[in-house]
Structures
1.
Amino acid sequence: AMEKSYMSVFLLLVALSCALAKDALKKETKDTKETKPKLPQTLSRGWGDQLIWTQTYEEALFRSKTSNKPLMIIHHLDDCPHSQALKKVFAEHKEIQKLAEKFILLNLVYETTDKNLSPDGQYVPRILFIDPTLTVRADITGRYSNRLYAYEPSDISLLFSNMQKALKILKTEL
Amino acid sequence: AMEKSYMSVFLLLVALSCALAKDALKKETKDTKETKPKLPQTLSRGWGDQLIWTQTYEEALFRSKTSNKPLMIIHHLDDCPHSQALKKVFAEHKEIQKLAEKFILLNLVYETTDKNLSPDGQYVPRILFIDPTLTVRADITGRYSNRLYAYEPSDISLLFSNMQKALKILKTEL
C-alpha cells in the first residue's frame, strides 16, 4: 500500500523542470557520499539564516493555522542556477527579509504529495502562498503565463508586493 | 479540499502521547516569537550533528529507494523529557552514530499524514525503520507492548541491535 502511495513522488520528481534538476540531484547524492558537511545542515539553506524556517509541510500548515500567519513556500533546488540566483537576491533584500518575519516559512527541495502546491505544474523556483485558512492563494502570481509561480531575480519587487498581498488575510465567509 | 485533507493533521497532533507534548508545543511557539535563534536551525536537532539528515519524508523515501539504504525515522518532541533523554544517549553512543551512517535518517517533530508510520498510534519518542523497498519494518520493535516503537535510554543496546536488523535488506519476492 505504501509503495503505491509514494511511487507518485518519484514520478513527480522527474517532472521538475529546472534544466539542471536531474543532474543536480545526482550530484548532490554523490557529494553527500564523498564528503560530510562540517557544519550541521540548516533549515534556511541560505534563504535567510536569521529567519525561522519550518521543516515540513505538516508543521508549516499547523503553525500557519495556529499563528494566523500566512505560509510562504519556496520550492527550489540546490544546483538549479535560477533557484540560486533568486535565493541570493532574496537573502540580500533587507525589506524582504524583514517582511518574511510575518510569514510561516518553508523551503523545499523535494515536492510534497499535495497537488494543491503545483497548480500549474512542478518546477523550480516556485513560490506559493497559503492563507491561514489553509487556502492556496493561487491568485498571487508572478510574470510568466506558462509558470505562474516562478520568479526571476529581476522580479524581486513583484515578489515583495506579492508578499504584502499575501499578508492581507482572507476572511472566512462561513 | 485542502482544508479537509489536512485537518486530520491537527487532530492527530492532539493524540501525541508524551505527557508534555501539548505544553511543549505551546512553549516552543512562544519562544520562537520572543527570541530569534542565533544560529541557523539544524536538521539534526542534536541527534547527531555530524550525520546527514533528510528534511522531509518524501525526500527520505526517495533517497532510501535510490541509495538502497534503509530509512530510520525518529519521531520526537523538543520539550518531551523522554525524547530528550533518548536523544542524549543516541547522540553520545559512538557505535550507534557510526552505524547510523548506513541509514537514510529523518527526525520529525510533526507527524506525517502517512498512517503506515503509526502502526500502534502516535507517541514520542517513536522509531520506525523502512526498507528500501518502501516497506515499513513493523517487525522491528522495542520492549513495550503498548508502544511497540518506543525506546527508553536504557534500551539503547536493543536499538543498536534493531538497527543492525534493519540493515539486512528485505528481498523483493516478485
2.
Amino acid sequence: MKINGKTVSFDNPPVIAGSAGVCGKKEGEGPLAQDFDAIFEDTTMGQQSYELAESAMLHDAIIRALTNAQVSPSDVNFILSGDLLDQCMGSAFAIKDLEIPSIGLYGACSTMALSLSVGAMLIDGGASCVAAGTSSHFCSSERQFRFPLEYGGQRPPSAQWTVTGAGCAVIKSKGNGIKIKAVSIGTICDLGITDANNMGAAMAPAAEKTIYEFFRDTKSKPSDYDLILTGDLGLTGSDLLYSLMEEEHGVDIRNVHNDCGLMIYDLKKQDVNSGGSGCGCSGSVLCSHILKRMRKKELKKVLFVATGALMSPTSNKQGNPIPGIAHAVLLEV
Amino acid sequence: MKINGKTVSFDNPPVIAGSAGVCGKKEGEGPLAQDFDAIFEDTTMGQQSYELAESAMLHDAIIRALTNAQVSPSDVNFILSGDLLDQCMGSAFAIKDLEIPSIGLYGACSTMALSLSVGAMLIDGGASCVAAGTSSHFCSSERQFRFPLEYGGQRPPSAQWTVTGAGCAVIKSKGNGIKIKAVSIGTICDLGITDANNMGAAMAPAAEKTIYEFFRDTKSKPSDYDLILTGDLGLTGSDLLYSLMEEEHGVDIRNVHNDCGLMIYDLKKQDVNSGGSGCGCSGSVLCSHILKRMRKKELKKVLFVATGALMSPTSNKQGNPIPGIAHAVLLEV
C-alpha cells in the first residue's frame, strides 16, 4: 500500500470476486427488490429472538457471497465483520460455526466500508482471500437503541428506519472482479449531537471530512466519479452533507451523490421518515444492487463512503454526544 | 506476510517501538505495581461516569505509549482499539480527539492480541506506524455485564475481577524494539457455556485451539518459549487449559504458562476469586510488565495469547451460549 495523507492506494488492487446482499420483507417491497440475492418474508428467520434472526441473515449472506465467489470457508484467510448490537453478537453468532479466523470490527453503520478497507489492506499485504460483511435488523436495533417494538413509540421526521438486511463481499488478491483501488480510514468527528433520533446529523460531518480528504489526497473532484455513495445519511443527513461540502469546501456533490438509505425504500410510500439506516443498509445495497450495476458496467467508478454514529445506549443515556466516523472505498471496473 | 495454516509470519518483523500500561488503585496494590506506567488512586479519573473514566484511562495509556515510542499522533497511520462496553464506547471516547484514523475492533478480552495482530499485518503491508490498545474498568464492566455495584451482588468462586486498566503499544515498520515475529487470528469456539460468572470455561477451549494450532503451524513445542502468556483465564480457566492441552494433544504447558489474570493480583490477599479479567488485564500487563521484562532480556520469546468471551448481556439473558476466541502473537527480542 501507498499512504498519501489519509488515503491508502494499491498498485495491485484487490478484487471483489463475489458478493451477496439479502434483506427482509419491507426492503423487498422497495425499489431495489429485483437486485437482492434473497428477500426473507419471515424476518424472524425461524429463530427465537430478533438478534439470532439478524445472525441467521448475515450467515446466509456470507454463504451466498462465498458461493458467488466460488470459494469455500476453508479458502478464506480472515473474515471481518461487525454490527450494531451489544458486543457485536450479530456477527459472533453468524460466524461461529464457519471455522474462519475472525477479526471482529466495530464501526457502527460504517462497518461495510471498514471491513472492505481493512480486508483490502490485508489482501494487499499478502492474504489471498478475505470476507467482509455486516448486518442489521430493525427489531433488534429498536430494542437495543430506542424502545422495544411492543412499546409503540412515535418517531420524529429525522428518525431513520433500520434496515433488516446483511451484506458480504469476498475479496481476493487476483482474478476478475471489481477493483478496490484505494481506501481511507476516517477519524472520529464529534460535533456534540446528542439526539439518538437524528443519526444523519451525527454522521454528516464525518462524511464531509472523509470525502473532502479523499478528494484532496487523490487530487480528484466530484465529476471524476459515476457515483459518490454514502451509507445511511438519509434525507436529513444528505442535505446536511451538501451544505457542509459547499460551505466548508465550495464543492457541490449533489449531481453525483446518492445514499443507500434513500435508495432502499420508496420514501413517499414506505413510511420510513428520513430513510434507511443500520449497518445492513449499506451492506445489503452495496453487495447486491451497486456491485451488480458495476459488473454490468452501468457504473464504473464509485466512491463508497459508509458513515457510523458511534452511539452506545449507555453513553447516550448519560447525556454524552454521539461521535461519527466515515470510511471510504474507491471501487472501479 | 506468509500464511501457513492459521499462522501469519513476517520476513521483516514489525517492531513494538513503545508501550504503556496503566491501572487503578487495586491493581496498583498487586505484585506488578512497580512496572505500571501509572497507577490512578482515583479510578473515576475525575469523570462523571465509570464509562468515561475508562476512556480517560485508555487515552492516558495511548499518550504515554506514543511518548514512549517518540511519535506524535500525526505520525500514526491507524489506531486499532476496542473494549468490553456497549458499542465499544470506551475506545470511541478515548480516541475521538486524537485525529488518528480509527479502526474499531471488537474481540472482548482478546482485544490486545487482536489489535497487535491486525496492527502488525498492516505494518507488514506498508503502514509505517500504528497504535494498538484496549481498556477495561471494573465498575463499568459490572454495570454492563452483571449488576450495578450498588446492588452488592455476591460472586461465585469461578467469577473473575475485571481489571481497571488500559494498555497501548506502538508498532513501527523498523527500528529498535521487540519484534512481532508471527500472529494467529483465532476462530470462534462455542462449547455451550452459558454462565456469565465462568468466563474462564468459555475461553479455555479457544486458547487450547489457538495454542495447539500455533505449535502445529510453526513446528514448535512449549519448551521453545520462555513464556506462554494467556490473557485472563484466571485459576479456573488456566486449570481447564492444562487439562485440555494434555487430554486433547498430550502437551504439558504448565512449566511455561502464566496468565495475566493470575499475575496482576495477589490472589491470596486481594479477594478477586479466580483472578483478573477484562481487556485491560492483558492490555495493561503486557504493555508494562511483560514488555519491560523483554526489553531487559529477562524474557526473550513470549507467545501472547489473549482470549475473549464474546458475551453480550442481551444474548446471555436470552439463554445463548458464550462463544470464545483467542488470538496469538509471537514476541521476540
